[in-house]
Amino acid sequence: MNGTLLNRETRELTPVVRGAFVLGLIYLFLVGVSLLETGIGDMGADVQESLFSSVSNPLAGLFVGVLGTVLVQSSSASTSVIVALVASGALSVEAAVPMIMGANIGTTVTNTLVALGSVRRSAEFRRAFAAATVHDFFNIITVAILLPVELVTGILSSAAESISSLLVGSAGTEWKSPIKGAVKAPVDWIEDAWSSLGAGGNALGVFLVVTGLVIILGALVLITRNMRRLIAARVETVLNNVLGRGGGLVAMAVGLLVTIAVQSSSITTSIMIPLAAAGVVTLQNIYPVTLGANVGTTITALLAALASSRPEALTVAIVHTLFNVAGILILYPPPGIRELPMRLAEGLAEIAVRRQAWAFGYTFLMFIIIPLAGIALLR
Amino acid sequence: MVLHLFRKSEDGLEQIANRTIAMLTDARHSFDLAHTALLSGADAGTIREDVHETDTRINQAEQQLRGQLVTHLAVHGTVDTAAVLSYTLLIKKIERIGDQVKNILDMTDEGVDLSDAPDVQELTAYRRTISNMIGEVADLMADHDEQEAAEFRERADALKKEIEQKIREYMHSDEPGHVAVPRAILYRYWKRIVANLGGVISSITEPLQHQDYYDEGATDIED
Description:
The structure holds two protein chains of two kinds. By secondary structure, chain A is an all-alpha fold. Chain A has 17 helices and no strands. The N and C termini of chain A lie far apart (64 Å). By secondary structure, chain B is an all-alpha fold. Chain B has a single domain, classed as Phosphate transport system protein phou homolog 2, domain 2 (Methane Monooxygenase Hydroxylase, Chain G, domain 1, Up-down Bundle). In chain B, 76% of the residues lie in helices and 0% in strands. Chain B has helices spanning 12-40, 44-76, 81-109, 120-143, 146-171, 177-205. In chain B, helix 1 runs parallel beside helix 3, helix 2 (44-76) runs antiparallel to helix 3 and helix 4 (120-143) runs parallel beside helix 6. Chain A binds chain B through residues 1-8, 10, 231-242, 244, 250, 253-254, 257, 261, 271-275, 278, 280, and chain B through 1-3, 5-13, 15, 17, 64, 66-68, 70-76, 79-80, 82-83, 85-87, 144, 146, 149, 202-208, 211.
């Protein structure tokens, strides 16, 4: 019988094969986005109106963004869907912006759930729950500041529109997206396949939307899984080299780059929770990593926007990036304000350790009850 | 600055294995130094600082490796759980070797000097054997040769029994206390060092649940 250290060899894809597989999955993801856009476009205007009129209230849109992201546990997926909806013309940029902000809050549920896993071990739980909820508090405070500002001034969408028009042209026009051209053939095949099965009109639109959603979610899950394996050794080295020495901008850059690589902020932030629980890294070190992850996760929506010929899709994706960068610029540089999400997270963790039911209550209330109630009341 | 951190690097457990080997190299260095004072009559004062610095380095390496092992699990998931638990056990054993070496050096504080003792050749031969064994363990941790590891384990068990016999002899010896006691204590430290080396190697020869256990469930717990 072999010893433990001899039993490690597993069958692994070579990095080149895995990298090629990931490229194929990114292509598949873009096909999914384009299918979703095509499917919504195939539906009648009345159906589109009935589907999306409920999010004309910005707060309802915010809660839809939270709940939708909680359900798929991926802001990359939910923001890509939002971008595809904008690309189809069914959702306006104004309605999409609060949903994007909601997605930012919703994505924090994953690491909160991971932290709940150590609820029976008080000292670990205190550290883990604080590390998880610092992300919640940062995003909630950012939304509390930037959503009203955006609603009053439209500053984020205006800035994003300016950048978008510089890159691909003004809203209302069409730009010749090379990616859109590259994914056109498989989208047409799938549309033809559904048509040949007798689907048409709104039904065809629904089938294409469902197919697109399945492809987007499946591709993102596989991209994340494969990229995680592809760069795991490097991520491990980086975490050992950087986080042991402190936080700051380098840690933020690590969060950004790891998240861009794995296309999931949930993965980046969830990796940090066991490290926090064990006391290997401090809350001060984790905090900037989560902020970097916030920005890194916006790459997926930007990628999704490239599959569209409408500049508005890119505008929404850029809003997502600007929102997260603005949040960092507002909350991170001033030392007093920088501490606020950490103090709130530590306070909540302290309460959660004393009354564990509150930890579950907070999670349920924040990510399920409030969004559901908000949607029900405000739609 | 940040991007260079993402360049291709060795697997996390390879890094951990390499640091483990470095800990063993440090342990051997301390072991040899401490015995220079005890068996060759070198000035303990000049050796002490080096031994303590090396022991501090071993202790810090153990603490850092614990963090790295948690990071490895967090990043890679549960696939390497058994290996991580094995490393947790074996780095503790190496850390213990560092402590035991320090204890050997501390014997000189009590005025023990065996450099002119009639049995110094025999004691020096044991020292050389154990020092070589520390080096062998470091090599085996790098090579993971199961056959050689099993052979090492057998030799370590045999040496441990031989040393136990020595301890027993000194416990019942008619020699005066200042002769019998230092030798009984020295052999006792050597026994623990050899047992810890066997424990380190058991990570290569035994599945996790059997590591640290000798035949028929007898447990090695006297660190």
